[in-house]
Amino acid sequence: MQAEQHNESWMDFEKVLFSELEKKGSLTVMEIMQSSGLSRNAVSVRLRKLKDQGLIDALEKPKSPKQRYRLTQSKAQ
Q: Which is more confident, 72 or 11?
């Protein structure tokens, strides 16, 4: 039941992600997976798209297990 509630609240992935990033500053893929109920692949595909659009930044080197994402400066303003 709790996972279903998470999924429903993450129906608009971008809107919820941006809201969470504004609150917390940065998030890991695992944190996004746990909150959204989406698989690692589903989260990664969405994050890659947002990164390519210049809406979020990766804070670590590519493929780092410690990778965190944040809003870009232009999106955060």
A: 72
DSSP string, 6-70: HHHHTSSHHHHHHHHHHHHS-EEHHHHHHHH---HHHHHHHHHHHHHTTSEEE-S-TT-TT-EEE
Strand partners for 68: 28
Global pTM reads 0.81
What domains can you pick out in the chain, each with its CATH number? 2-76 (1.10.10.10)
Q: Are 21 and 15 in contact (CB under 8 A)?
A: no
Count of residues for the chain? 77
Task: State residue 29's pLDDT score.
Answer: 95
